[in-house]
Fold each of these.
Amino acid sequence: MPMTGSCHCGKITYTLDEDAPANAMACNCSICRRKGYLLHFSTPDKFTLHGSRDDIQAYTFNSHTIRHQFCKTCGCAPFGEGEGPNGPAVMINLRCAADVDLDALAITHFDGASR
């Protein structure tokens, strides 16, 4: 069943053509640590953005390989886009996904601070 998510105000919504994951990644890099992301990685062909990209602002840092996308109105960051180890990737912030039981997720910790 497709997974959906949004920013707080609802201007940024998406559908991901995948079932909700059982696993998530918690990264300790400077932005993920500050924002508290729990991430799920997918591919752009499974991701559909609803609404206008005009409502989105991107933030990049360090190697600029990931565009952290956030809503210009409410500031929530429901997803990111960029290059993963296997090519183009979409990073879903599971804290902004609907119907995901965050307490049931198996969390893998990634040491992004050392990269």
Amino acid sequence: MPADTPKIIFLDVDGTLVDYENNLPDSAIEAIREARANGHRIYICTGRSKAEVYPPLWEIGLDGMIGGNGSYVESDGEIVMHRTLSLDQCTRAVDWLNARGLAFYLESNSGLFASRDFENGALEAVRAYSARKGKSNAATMTVHDGYPDMIYGGELYRDDVNKISYVLGSQQDFLDAEQEFDDMHNGTWGGRGATALWGDLGVKDITKAHAIDCLLAYLGADRADTIAFGDAAVDVPMLEYCAYGVAMGNGSPDVKRAADLVTDDVEEDGLAHAFARLGLIGRRTTETGHGER
């Protein structure tokens, strides 16, 4: 897919733009800046809420973001779309999770808000999640290490929540949540490996693909000029929706099956290599992309 016209590029963050240690490769920064200088638009498209998009990411130079796995869309500093859980939905979820004894946190653009027992209740899940991401200090991590900006003691009955993540005590917790909250999107996540560590509750009928559709309508842009990059199952809808999909080498098998191109791992300059291969930037002498579908 040669970049003969300006493209709109959507980048997942964790495992795509940053590695599993949350390191941002210099090659990715350089590639994004060069691509934007060449007239392409770059948006991050992430499960993170805006409160988790820290200054180093914005300082790369971005045209905007899609957050909360599609519940929030921002372009050039303007809010294009923002859908949140209602106060009633949030209240019901908080009460149910508390009654069940599950640690959780609320993901809002204004911050992350922890349940009362989160520091203890989430410790095992935080360590397991970090171990799956390859962190060498996973066994001794604290919840504060994993969530340094978490807010404790804040109001939990809120109307500005994008989604709620909760620790899974068992798969039954997820199955029961699906039954209890059929007015919300129910999902799971947990890093490398098949067993889920966390459940999440979000706005129903929201995906990254839907958010991209909203952004394109706002921009008056053509879907034919879109490219998506991802590494996890939640990225599959946007890879399938966009004209061209790129899976990271560290991505899950379902993402690679959905992609048109599989590039190198995030730690091996995979983003920059794919940008070069697609003609978004000048070719890199070390570019070694793995192949096309």
Amino acid sequence: MMVKSLQDTTILHNGVKMPWFGIGVFKVEDGPELVNAVKTAIQHGYRSVDTAAIYGNEKGVGKGIQEGLEEAGIPREELFVTSKVWNADLGYESTIAAYEKSLKKLGLEYLDLYLIHWPVEGKYMDAWRALETLYKEGRVKAIGVSNFQIHHLEGLMKVAEIKPIVNQVEYHPRLSQKELQAFCQDNGIQLEAWSPLMQGQLLDNEVLQEIAYKHNKSIAQIILRWDLQNGVITIPKSTKEHRIVENANVFDFELTKEEMEIIDGLNQNLRVGPDPDNFDF
């Protein structure tokens, strides 16, 4: 599968178009640096921004979006904005209230994608009903989940009226989650990668270095290209302009089948984030 540009989209199972590539803002402090990063990304052609209530930076993201759209001269409809409801708000009413709060902070009238951040047992079913309500009312374009394993998805799909549209999970060459990906593919759920660069832990990997050298690319670019060729949406985080530009410069080359398999071979089921099954909420 060849994704050809930063604006290329995939069509989600409800017909909504979502960019293959975006900018993430996990752990970026609210303030001028964040506003500037979001604005810079939009100016350089990014059309997807991913945040979450728990990041505490929706206000800055909203400001960056507003300034970025104004300066780039593009309408809000061309940008795909994602946020997530935090664990403490996973009731029916509280999820709807959390959505309102996120919208207000972001200064937006709707979100393109709203996700349940973690599969807190006994709580996410009510939250999902709230997401379905928001979706049916046309207040959000797509709904999904984050950090859900196969058994969480199966449980949810037994009672859900609307099947999750996206599942955003930790995904990188050391955690390639092939079974989960196959399950999502079979069920029309789009997989999306957070922490695609394993928080920098893969950037001196010799195997990846060799492939990077062949393509005259950085290791980060090789990993992000691997995501895309695996059919996984990716949202690398950066606040530095040269890195924001470099991360997105992955559309002028293709990894060979052999190179893809070599990178697949780096999997060790290793997480940098919490294990969704043993996360102390």
